[in-house]
From TrEMBL:
Protein's recorded name: Adenine deaminase
Binding-site residues, Zn(2+): 16, 18, 192, 273
InterPro entries: A_deaminase_dom, ADE, Ado/ade_deaminase, Metal_Hydrolase
Domain of life of the native organism: Bacteria
Positions that bind substrate: 274
Record-marked site positions (Important for catalytic activity): 216
Cofactor info, note text: Binds 1 zinc ion per subunit.
Active site residues per record: 195 (proton donor)
Organism: Janthinobacterium fluminis
Catalyzed reactions: adenine + H2O + H(+) = hypoxanthine + NH4(+)
Amino acid sequence: DQLRALLRQMPKAELHIHIEGSLEPELIFALAARNGVALAYASVEQLRAAYAFEDLQSFLDIYYAGASVLLKEQDFYDMTSAYLARAAADNVRHAEIFFDPQTHTARGVPMADVINGIHRACQDSPVSATLILSFLRHLSEEDAFATLEQALPHRDKFIGIGLDSSEVGNPPEKFARVFARCRELGFHLVAHAGEEGPPAYIETALDVLHVERIDHGVRCLEDAALTQRLARQQTALTVCPLSNTKLRVFDTMAEHNLLGLLDAGLLVTVNSDDPAYFGGYMNANFAAVFEALPLGLAHAQRLARNGFIAAFLPDEVKRRYL
Ligand code: ES4
Ligand code: ZN
């Protein structure tokens, strides 16, 4: 119908996408063959059948295994090109893309190959695309510092710093010093918080790390004072509806709190997170949430507009979309 057509056709900004989470099973198998990497699954179908997750950790185990086929600069280029082509088909005009260098440097892949491959694909795409280097929070702050050091020769190729991986037990304050350094260096700062972790992690992401956006953040509604603060400050939440249902943050899309977040006056955006694992790219996320919740045309326009408001883009560029 008309609303579904609008959802597809609206120009969108995607602010929460892990590039390693865009690796489709077909590309995992092609890269495994190209690089001589052995996989624990015999076929694309068997791998896809393993995508039944119970929580964040059960997903992350498979996500890191999938990323093990990425060895050469061209592999990172091909993965990123495939994502950007898919994003363009969903009318994504701007993407801010997370990458997890520690996943690759730990296997001996040079930092230069990771960053140059992803960055070159961004430059070759008609979609505006910028990069956010994300630290793995299950590793130490010392490891994050070493990663930052390795990445700094490439500082012109990424605009921000993020924090992802296993949330519970790895609070934002674990990374206070490395985020302080990144702030001095002038990077934009974001962190995953309040996905599986408690609202207190959203608070320390803001107060200790000084992040500008919260990735996920859906558990903020458990704390009324925090919700009011996020609304007053208009701190963006990069919400990922299909991710939240696949990882059982909400059991069904009808139980998702996206409308509650909007009604609380929050700057909510819709994003795909790990589209190859969670069942869809941007338009699939919009379609799923509009299917399950009583949302209309005004909500659609507000969500799309919020993506550009929350983007790390110059005001004169944003203005074209607002
Ligand atoms: C992630 Cl959904 C999610 N949460 C935390 N870390 C991640 N890395 C990739 N996807
Ligand atoms: Zn994420």
